[in-house]
Design goal:
Phageshock_PspC_N, about 60 residues, membrane
Length: about 60
């Protein structure tokens, strides 16, 4: 398992899900689909808050 960082190359919004998928070793599309499903099934707020916190907590990937 790699260090959890925000991806610079595989990002749609802030690179959180791209970095998460790289550290876990799965396809980023799968991570994004799971996130969207959880986003709507939890009522948007909890997952949106977690994502926003990770944007500020996780460092950017070094080049």
């Amino acid at each position: 398992m790699n260090k959890l960082v925000r991806s610079r190359s595989n990002r749609k919004v802030a690179g959180v899900l791209g970095g998460l998928s790289k550290s876990i070793g799965i396809d980023p599309t799968i991570t994004r689909v799971i996130f969207i499903v959880l986003l709507f099934t939890t009522g948007v707020f909890p997952m949106a808050l977690i994502y926003a916190l990770l944007v500020f907590v996780l460092p950017n990937e070094e080049v």
